[in-house]
Amino acid sequence: MIKRYFVRTSSLKEGMRIDQNIKDRMDRVLIAKGVYLDEYQIEAIKRMKITGVYVSEGEEDPDKNVVQREISAVARNNISKLHKEDSSKVKLSESIKARVSEGIQFLYNDTDSPQFTSTSVNITNSLLKAIDDNSAIAVDINALKTSDEYTFKHSVDVATMSMIVAKKMNMKKQDIYNIGIAGLLHDMGKSKIPLEILNKPAKLDDKEFEVMKQHSVYGYRILSEKDDFEPSIAIAVLQHHEKMNGRGYPLGVDRKNITPYAKILSVVDVYDALVTERPYKKGMSQRNAIEIIMSMTEELDIAAMRGFLESVILYPVDTVVQLSNGEEAWVVKNHSESILRPTVVGLKSGKVYDLTNDLECASILIM
Length: 367
Description:
The chain has 13 helices and eleven strands. The protein has 367 residues and is of the alpha+beta class.
């Protein structure tokens, strides 16, 4: 059973589980409900002059909210026999998520701060360490979420996924690091966009969109003035909305003139924008977003697209999915070359559906 009680800030201790969201003045989540507090987060709460917060302890009844599924003996045997773990996935601890969210807020609020570069470096190093700590070469796109605030979530999602893709493409360590910085700061120019346009709860009209498109230029200018950043990082920020067919912005250059960093950022940025809910649109399902990415061969770089598709896990092993033939099935193996079509085992029939290689399964989809 979960117990909830109020604790004065002066009495907070590391390891306490906070039972409320801590937000800034713009209603952005800095520390999410359910996080186990560390010393850094407790100090942040004190700096905000919050007198006390709710914390909780204990766990939910393990039987509560659990869906009981009948799994046949044949299915269990096939699941055990065919089970193959996913590639190592990047994991972001709640402490890292909270720390990164606060750092991103600082960067967006004060682009002229003397600590701008060091904060950017610290955040990127935290994300890179999370990747290196478990030798991650993949990301579970269902689980990647930093906060409920769009700018923070999008920036960290793009940085993390871009570094994973760069790693998959066998880029050098310095390039992986640089693309992490570029991904983290790719939308920094939005800090110079008027709030009535940036926060408009409806689709922008043509004139407003022309203003919004300048955020790439503003971001480039912000980073170009920082002597500690390599020029390639600022150029990637400038070009992350350019398209291979020359129909992007702000320069309208084609694939020959787009930096490799920007080619990766473009793929990841499009994906994350598609799946993220905004005031004027609902987020798309991960599956539909992947299908759209796969169709954008004229606009996105093929090598970067392939690196992205081979890095993401849509249906993690040991999850249950619904097949178009009406049967529930257990995911036992993923195929990096075909992420929409893993190998699964029917829970009742025990039948093995190799959705990638078995022609008899060609008409069966995951719903």
